[in-house]
Amino acid sequence: MVHGTHNALPDKRNENIKIYVNGELFPRNEAKISVFDSGYLVGDGIWEALRLHDGVLVHLKEHLDRLWQGAATVGMDLKMTKAELVEKIWMVLKANEMHDNVHCRFMVTRGIKKTPSQDPRLTISGPNLVIIAEHKAASPKSKENGVTLFTSTIRRGSPAYLDPRLNCHSKLHEVMALVQAIEAGCDEALMLDIHGFVSTCNATNFFMIKNGEVWTSTGQYCMNGITRGTIIKICKEKSVPVFEKNFSLFDLYGADEAFVTGTFGGLTPVTKIDGRVIGPGKYGELSRQLSKWYEEDILKEVAAVKAGQAPY
Hints:
By secondary structure, the chain is α+β, with helices and mostly antiparallel strands. It has eight helices and 15 strands.
């Protein structure tokens, strides 16, 4: 069985979900897109994923802002407003009768090419939009047991050639890093930046704890995750010392605790890195407390949205 931060409890309802493709809903096994799609041909696309919790799309504004920032970065006209996209997302959720414990991913590519090519001028359609919503509850066992990491030889790149903050379809370097980790017998990959400092994991953001302080990378060479930002905000609110700084494996191997963050799993403890046990080798006390505060923060947002005190 696959183990990692995206390990979900099995749910048979996902066999019959409806998937959105350019304005239409299709059964799961009939949802298709052209082989001339820009995303398939050259990875020319951007995406976001968020959680539906008790009828509320958590951190929706932040995810929409990041999608529009990504579109501006790659020069893509999304041909829709944020409100229109939200309407389409709710169309999918309602069609699937979804209310809670749902993971929703929406992907936009530049469109259909008339021939295989990188050139955006050869695009002959508007952007392609696919929305996949699944019943996905994180596995409590995986979250409690934590994950093991392996430091990949593949680095997170420089903003000079592909800004690591861009949530695009071009994820091959992260996949390659994960392949190394799996072949080393670990769950996920830890990635360093171009200077050799700890940056991020292949699909999550990384944090370490030392002497009651929470450390994470500068944010220059990693996806600036929404959950990452929420944990930083919570630390500041709760007067927990938190630092976005450069640190190396030298610092990390002596950490008291470590954890990773992501939209799907929230906060997941890290028990071992490169064969070295981190701290107690289990869910640490401060990590567990931060996870509890994070869950409480989500409940506050849900209540605020329902009370009309927050957008969407």
